[in-house]
TrEMBL record, chain A:
One of its GO terms (biological process) is amino acid transport. It comes from the Archaea. The chain crosses the membrane at residues 25-46, 66-86, 98-122, 142-165, 193-212, 267-282. It is a multi-pass membrane protein. The keyword Oxidoreductase does not apply. Keywords: Amino-acid transport, Cell membrane, Membrane, Transmembrane, Transmembrane helix, Transport. It is found in: Cell membrane. GO terms for cellular component: plasma membrane. This is Branched-chain amino acid ABC transporter permease. It comes from Halobellus rarus.
Automatic annotation (TrEMBL), chain B:
Belongs to the ABC transporter superfamily. GO terms for biological process: amino acid transport. InterPro entries: AAA+_ATPase, ABC_transporter-like_ATP-bd, ABC_transporter-like_CS, BCAA_Transport_ATP-bd_LivF, P-loop_NTPase. It holds the Pfam family ABC_tran. GO terms for molecular function: ATP binding. This is ABC transporter ATP-binding protein. Residues 5-236 form the ABC transporter domain.
From TrEMBL, chain C:
It comes from Halobellus rarus. This is ABC transporter ATP-binding protein. InterPro entries: AAA+_ATPase (IPR003593), ABC_AA/LPS_Transport (IPR051120), ABC_transporter-like_ATP-bd (IPR003439), P-loop_NTPase (IPR027417). SMART domains: AAA. The keyword rRNA-binding does not apply. It holds the Pfam family ABC_tran. Residues 2-240 form the ABC transporter domain. GO terms for molecular function: ATP binding. Keywords: ATP-binding, Nucleotide-binding, Transport. Signal peptide: none annotated.
UniProtKB/TrEMBL annotation, chain E:
Signal peptide: none annotated. The chain crosses the membrane at residues 20-35, 47-72, 92-114, 121-144, 170-189, 218-244, 256-281, 293-316. It comes from the Archaea. This is Branched-chain amino acid ABC transporter permease.
Length: 295, 236, 240, 388, 320
């Protein structure tokens, strides 16, 4: 039975902030996926494992130095380097075969997650919040770390969005993604574009992992819980549309933040998945995707 | 005549099958040169080999005195070469304008870019009318115009054209030939692969005839307009 | 046989096909020419169900084809070839023809079919396009011209009454073009043929009638001789 | 009663542990408890080395059954310890009852379904972990006593229930509702969080806006590890009295890598294991545990399997037999001094009787876990509900 | 390396096929006598083999990578378990019902994506979402599925005086059903229908203009696959006696994909053999290195994807 409770302004603001912070986390995960998937066309199933690596890396550095920010930087850099090695040595030659790409990243993700499980065990690790205090925003008290995450999400969205739309790099990424040999004869160093895109995407996964570590606890398969949602977000948002994944992340965040008011949370989640499926069917190119192209 | 491009003993392969055999050609800075031959004789393969768009090849390609044989395609074209591929290869999801933008490297100033784009739009009015339309929705002929336009905006020293008139309506072919005429009079080198030799003969300085991967005839327009040669290498 | 009336197709703001009337008479070879972007391929796509018209009717043997799926239209007896050859790179020529010849609506019953079924039909079709010696060649290894023939053979094998050819001679050399021409000549009377082609010589020499499209509209439909002499056609297309 | 491998030379004990999947953390600790017990017993029962065979139940009923099957049918073990959750345990119980027929000692199974449904509970099964019917009333009672210990103004008769959205949480809700009604109180609302959820902010908001002043429920370790730091960041324990059963949060800090920064103020719980209990067996348990390579602290989960192993060893030593009948009759009514204090396997329904307390974790300075005990609740085991 | 490979290839090709097949069949028949303690495992392996075949039909032949095969496998298991445990109905009634339900669900899920040809990549993600929903749903709806406790426990019934509850009996029951269904699929794929799928994969456009309703052909493959997956799940629940969420989990989906890739996509026999082999390898490894199995499996999988993308069958099959 549905019942719609009345909510006060304060509650409303808190819920909206919850939705915003959750949406930003989804977006941080989705942004890297969106770059790699939307532009290279690779369903990077190892993305979740990269996220886990980012989280575990941060944890390890904190254990050693006690400094979260150092952990964040080091783990993002290390995972980016791993991404670089993967791309240069392993993945570069399967970009034009989406199925093979999916399968190999699926395998690589499995190996990373299982290696984490063997090394760390499957128990979860909690990382202390570097910003434990709450602050007053719009008349409500809200955890400052979550506000920080919102801020980082917004900066990433804006930064990468500008790169894609306004810069030549963005145009070259598009060109390489769509017809690599042609981009080459138009003077685009496509190998470099692939590398940049993959490394950037991977670094974003690590960033998402490091940033979520103080919010949630880390366990080897944490990525899987995020990327299913993230994949749906980028599809619904429109393949290759960075704006789309941002907007949809925000919407999903708000739906979950308010959805429990009317429906049991598990059903809210099921509903979000189901709605995304229906959406894919009726608009496979997504919200901001472009119309079907003829030969 | 100073050398711009020299190809020596080029052999090209697709998998195990060899397509080009010991091909040697050369091109001066302002030369307009044609490559003629029937279907499947290796014209496209030759052009592809010049910019290294091929599985495997041996031999050397020297451009402006540098051995570019092992360079990647983008490195070669950045030296001032523009390539109009046979299949046109227009970006379907990019607009006409974006397709043009893409071909110009970032070191060209904004004004110059706009000017070059407008030049293309004057040459091909149809493209001007459709500058925001996406490449994939253009007709075959419109795409060909765009492919040529995309080469022109780079203001190349060497222009490689692979069958620029294929799939075009006769009226458009006339336009294209006009454009080619204006190109060949400029101070740039042009290499055109064509089946349609009669259209091209007035334009070229020299030409090569290619037959199953080997250069079998070489000479100026007069030499190549010989009916006997046509009969032997072009008609059946 | 096949007639379209008031056929119109709009893409956003572009009107690719604009109020086209055209009739294919039984057994004729009908040419369709026009400048690039005139709407020829779009017209073919509309007839075969690849695209749905914005308005207009397409009537075949007294039934309306609008809204039917490409496969249903193909089963009605309208076959087509493509501007870019379409085939199955990893399959032998024989398998191509077998797929064309067999009843495309049956699936489960095919479990009980045997290898040697359809043999005579396959051979007959192969002979028509001179592929009888290549039956066991894998299609990707065929020369370009032969791929064209294979494409045509499949259409013949599926037992169509109307065949639409989109630039069948594109990318072929003179001898191959002549072969195509011979094959097409051979179809006269037996099939109703629409041929879209830029090789004006080819179209002129084999068509009974020619329709000229320009900017999506019909400029004229007439005999080849009259079409080439038509000043308007000269202006927009032939360019003399 | 059926076979059991009475004839073999050495004692063979099988364990089904959740070594992967959602309960892997519990399973890992269970396994560690068994390792401690091996050390404790010097690897010997009846003066010869015993064999401990551990199979992964993968946190899943079906894999657990398969593991049990392998142990009984291929390995011919004398008894089985495990698996962890109620769902997994039930499947194994049913298998043991129908086919397996060996003594079956469960670690943390606590649902009513496992303990009371006559289709499940059977003569082979023994439970050391208190049942939910144990936990819910004890927790309710502690909530009623809490105003004596907390310097805050709140109404203990109204509680909000929090758990995860699956069998454990759903069953716990009914029991808490029942026991709250018994003391004249009520459950004003509930939050059931989807499994696999990592961001609890919306649920924390829901809890914060609940009518009740007290929040209670049952949590798995994984869930507690999500809830506690996130609730702290929202300042929830300052608004609500957080009181959870089943050893959370008291045991939580001991058995997880919860950093010191995660404050424990405002979190209360009921539990049956007091790490500070100063008895020989607990001291030895703790020192053996700490020798193992684990960053964790001795805890009730490891203690449970440790004690099950000890009980088995005692019974086999006493009777000199590994026959199923002998082990079962030995276990029935067995009383011993455990790391949980005095404990007994009740004859009527094979449930362990042990004592509870209510309290909270306090920040510690060494590796010892400090627990402040507010109230003790001996003899809270309910009447037998399953006749064997 | 490649020398070694061609040696292996040459050796295998040199072996006479028929006697080899006969040896294989005899071995399968003799399992309960040769390895009585392993017949449970062998039964499980056979069922997973059939499951792998069913998924290979969509992945290997129709070219659709589904990330939800476990949903259909689990549906089969849950249907039988529900009927037996909650409604006290016959075990056998569960089989047709499982197949019917799987067909209905597959139709509902597959109809629009196949009809709209949403594309490979989208299909992968679409089924990923569907799999996630089914998994969540199984957990929440305790009233229907028993939630995390699952639905159990029960054994298969007696038929004609034979108690299928025995390990050996159930092994032979499984062997016979798997052989029949597997052979049926083999016939289907070797018929023109196999060519239709093959051709559709290579050039769907051409197929449509040859008059084939490619949507319908793909749909048939999808439905057959779902029905056989569900059937395998139904046989499986008779073996283990309980339906639980692991049967609809992503891990099982991952396993079946691994089996198919290791065995060789689009070969039927390859995935079948790989599933059987890996079930035994898992058992072996689990005793040697607790917890390391999945890590090794992952590494094995990656090696196959990169080094032998055609799988074991590709290794053995003649090269053109
Ligand atoms: N990707 C490829 N793989 C294998 N063989 C190829 C490939 N591309 C071309 N060939 C073969 O190489 C030979 C030369 O082809 P190429 O395209 O260079 O000829 P061309 O002279 O440009 O012909 P056209 O006039 O048709 O464009 C032909 O026999 C062709 O079949
Ligand atoms: N999907 C589409 N969206 C927008 N415009 C389109 C689309 N498809 C075709 N057009 C436009 O419709 C017009 C007709 O295109 P069509 O492909 O039918 O031409 P054509 O006569 O076959 O030309 P060609 O001889 O060059 O192949 C062109 O201007 C083209 O740009
Ligand atoms: Mg060419
Ligand atoms: Mg066209």
């Amino acid at each position: 039975m549905l019942e719609i409770p009345l909510i006060t302004t304060e509650n409303f603001i808190t819920y909206a902030l919850n939705g915003l912070s959750r949406g930003m986390i989804i977006f941080l995960v989705a942004s890297g996926l969106s770059l790699i998937f939307g532009l290279i066309g690779l369903i990077n199933f190892a993305h979740g494992a990269m996220l886990a690596l980012g989280g575990y890396g941060t944890y390890v550095v904190i254990q050693a130095t006690g400094n979260f920010w150092l952990g964040l930087v080091i783990s993002v850099v290390l995972v980016a380097v791993l991404g670089l090695a993967l791309e240069r040595k392993v993945l570069y030659w399967i970009y034009d075969e989406p199925l093979l790409g999916f399968l190999s990243t699926f395998g690589i993700g499995l190996v990373i997650e299982e290696a984490l499980a063997v090394y760390f065990g499957s128990r979860s690790y909690t990382v202390p919040s570097p910003l434990p205090e709450s602050v007053q925003v719009l008349g409500v008290s809200y955890p400052s770390y979550r506000l920080f995450v919102i801020l980082v999400g917004a900066v990433v969205a804006l930064g990468i969005g500008l790169i894609l739309v306004k810069t030549r790099l963005g145009l070259e990424i598009h060109a390489t993604a769509n017809m690599q040999p042609t981009a080459e004869i138009l003077g685009v160093d496509t190998a470099r574009i692939y590398t940049i895109t993959f490394v950037l995407g991977t670094a974003l996964a690590a960033l998402a992992g490091a940033l979520t570590a103080p919010i949630t606890s880390m366990y080897p398969t944490i990525g899987l819980d995020y990327i299913t949602m993230a994949f749906l977000v980028i599809i619904v948002g429109g393949m290759g549309s960075f704006k789309g994944s941002f907007v949809v992340s925000m919407i999903v965040g708000q739906i979950i933040a308010f959805g429990w008011l009317v429906l049991s949370p598990t059903y809210v989640r099921i509903l979000v998945f189901a709605a995304a499926m229906v959406f894919i069917l009726y608009k496979p190119r997504g919200f901001f995707g472009k119309a079907e192209v003829h030969e | 005549m100073s050398e711009l491009l020299t190809v020596e003993d080029l052999n090209a392969f697709y998998g195990d099958s060899q397509v080009l055999f010991d091909v040697s050609i050369e091109l001066g800075t302002n030369d307009v040169v044609g490559i003629f031959g029937r279907n499947g004789m290796g014209k496209t393969t030759l052009l592809n080999s010049l910019v290294n768009r091929i599985d495997r090849k041996t031999g050397t390609v020297t451009y402006r005195g540098q051995d570019v044989s092992a360079w990647s395609p983008h490195e070669i074209v950045r030296e001032g070469i523009a390539y109009v591929p046979e299949e046109r290869e227009i970006y379907p999801a990019l607009s006409v304008r974006e397709n043009l933008e893409l071909a110009m490297t970032s070191d060209i100033g904004d004004d110059a870019r706009e000017e070059r784009i407008q030049n293309v739009f004057t040459q091909f009015e149809r493209l001007g009318e459709r500058q925001e339309q996406r490449g994939g929705t253009l007709s075959g002929g419109e795409q060909q115009m765009l492919a040529i336009g995309r080469a022109l905006v780079t203001d190349p020293d060497l222009l490689l054209l692979d069958e620029p008139t294929e799939g075009l309506a006769p009226a458009i072919i006339d336009d294209v030939v006009d454009i080619l005429e204006s190109l060949v009079t400029g101070d740039r080198a042009v290499l055109i692969a064509e089946q349609n030799i009669n259209r091209m003969l007035p334009l070229i300085d020299r030409g090569y005839m290619i037959q199953t991967g080997r250069i079998v005839e070489e000479g100026d327009s007069d030499h190549l307009s010989d009916e006997a040669i046509h009969d032997k290498y072009l008609t059946v | 046989m096949l007639s379209v009336e008031g056929l119109t197709k709009k893409f956003d703001s572009v009107v690719a096909v604009d109020d086209v009337d055209m009739e294919l008479r039984s057994g004729e070879i009908h040419g369709l020419i026009g400048p690039n972007g005139a709407g020829k391929t779009t017209t073919v796509n509309l007839i075969t169900g690849e695209l749905t018209p914005t308005s207009g009717t397409i009537e075949f043997d007294g039934t309306d084809l609008v809204g039917r799926s490409p496969s249903a239209i193909a089963r009605q007896g309208i076959g087509r070839s493509f501007q870019v050859v379409q085939y199955f790179p990893e399959m032998t020529v024989r398998k191509h023809l077998r797929l064309a010849v067999r009843d495309s609506t049956e699936t489960v019953r095919s479990v009980f079919n045997r290898q040697e079924d359809y043999g005579p039909q396959i051979r007959e079709v192969a002979e028509r396009v001179h592929l009888e010696d290549d039956l066991d060649t894998v299609a990707k290894n065929l020369a370009h011209g032969k791929k064209r023939f294979l494409d045509i053979a499949m259409v013949l094998g599926m037992d169509s009454r109307v065949i639409l050819f989109d630039e069948p001679a594109a990318g072929l050399n003179q001898s191959e073009t002549d072969e195509v021409k011979a094959i097409l000549e051979n179809l006269r009377g037996e099939y109703t043929v629409l041929i879209v082609e830029h090789d004006v010589d080819l179209v002129r020499s084999i068509s009974d009638r020619i329709t000229v499209l320009h900017n999506g509209s019909v400029l004229t439909t007439d005999t080849p001789e009259n079409v080439v002499e038509n000043p308007q056609v000269k202006e927009v297309y032939l360019g003399e | 009663l059926g076979g059991g491998g009475g004839g073999s030379d050495s004692v063979k004990i099988g364990a089904v542990m959740a070594l992967s999947g959602p309960f892997a953390r519990t399973g890992e600790e269970n396994q560690r408890g068994l390792e401690v017990a091996e050390d404790y017993l010097d690897g010997e029962i009846l003066d010869s080395e015993f064999e401990l065979i551990i199979e992964d139940g993968e946190s899943d009923p079906n894999a657990s059954i398969q593991a049990a099957r392998t142990l009984v049918e291929d390995e011919d073990v004398d008894a089985i310890i495990g698996p962890v959750s109620s769902g997994n345990s039930i499947s194994v119980m049913q298998y043991i009852k129908e086919d397996g027929q060996v003594p079956h000692l469960m670690t943390t199974a606590s649902s009513v379904e496992a303990r009371e449904n006559p289709e499940n509970c059977n003569e082979y099964g023994f439970f050391i972990w208190p049942s939910n019917r144990h936990l819910a009333p004890t927790g309710t009672q502690f909530i009623q006593d809490l105003p004596n210990h907390i310097d805050r103004d709140f109404d203990p008769s109204r509680v909000h229930y929090v758990s995860q959205d699956y069998a454990l949480g759903q069953n716990g809700l009914e029991l808490v509702e029942e026991s709250m009604n018994e003391v004249g109180g009520e459950v004003t609302g509930s939050t059931l969080v989807p499994l696999g959820e990592t961001d609890w902010s919306s649920y924390i908001s829901e809890i914060a806006n609940s009518e009740a002043d007290v929040v209670t429920g049952v949590l798995t370790w994984g869930a507690a590890a999500q809830l506690m730091p996130q609730a702290n960041s929202f300042g929830l324990p300052e608004e609500k009295v957080m009181m959870f059963n089943s050893g959370k949060p008291i045991g939580q800090f001991a058995a997880s890598t919860m950093p010191d920064e995660v404050t424990v103020d405002g979190w209360f719980g009921t539990h049956f294991y007091n790490p500070g209990l100063d008895t020989d067996v607990n001291n030895e348990f703790q020192s053996l545990y700490n020798e193992l390579d684990s960053s964790l602290l001795p805890n009730s989960t490891a203690g449970a399997s440790f004690e099950l192993m000890r009980a088995l060893a005692t019974v086999i030593e006493d009777s000199g037999s590994t026959a199923t009948d002998d082990i079962i009759s030995g276990l029935e009514g067995l009383e011993w001094d455990s790391v949980f204090g005095p404990i007994q396997f009740r004859e009527e329904d094979h449930q362990a009787a042990l004592n509870f307390f209510g309290g909270r974790r306090v920040a510690s300075d060494g590796d010892a876990t400090e627990v402040e005990v507010f109230e003790e609740y001996p003899d809270v085991i309910p009447d037998a509900r399953c006749s064997l | 390396m490649s020398d070694r490979l061609s040696d292996v290839r040459g050796f295998v090709r040199g072996l006479p096929r028929r006697p080899l097949l006969a040896v294989g069949v005899l071995l399968l028949l003799a399992v309960p006598f040769l390895f009585p303690s392993q017949s449970d495992l062998a039964t499980e392996a056979l069922i997973f083999g059939l499951f792998a075949i069913s998924v290979d039909i969509v992945l290997g032949y129709a070219g659709l990578l589904s990330l939800a095969p476990a949903a259909f496998f689990g549906l089969g298991s849950y249907t039988v378990a529900k009927l037996v445990v909650d409604y006290g109905q016959s075990f056998w009634l569960g089989f047709p019902l499982a197949i019917v339900l799987a067909l209905v669900l597959a139709l509902v899920v597959g109809y629009v994506p196949i009809k709209r040809r949403i594309g490979n990549v989208y299909f992968v993600l679409f089924t990923l979402a569907f799999g996630a929903i089914v998994h969540d749903f199984t957990f929440v709806t305790t009233w229907l599925t028993g939630g995390s406790d699952g639905l159990g426990f029960f054994g298969p019934p007696e038929v004609l005086g034979i108690d299928l509850g025995g390990n050996t009996e159930y092994y032979y029951f499984t062997l016979v059903t798997v052989a029949i269904v597997g052979y049926g699929l083999y016939l289907l794929i070797k018929s023109d229908y196999g060519d239709i799928l093959h051709a559709t994969r290579q050039n769907e456009l051409r197929m449509r203009y040859l008059g084939y309703d490619t949507n319908r052909e793909l749909m048939i493959a999808w439905l057959v696959s779902a029905a056989v997956s569900a059937f395998a799940g139904a046989v499986y629940v008779g073996l283990v006696g309980i339906a639980s969420p692991s049967l609809v989990s992503f891990a099982l989906t991952g396993d079946v994909i691994i089996w198919i890739i290791v065995g060789g996509t689009g070969t039927l026999l390859g995935p079948f053999g790989a599933a059987i082999g890996l079930v035994f390898v898992q058992e072996l490894l689990q005793n040697l290195w607790q917890g390391g199995y999945r890590l090794l499996l992952g590494i094995l999988f990656v090696v196959f994807v990169f080094v032998l993308p055609d799988g074991l069958m590709g290794l053995l099959r003649d090269e053109e």
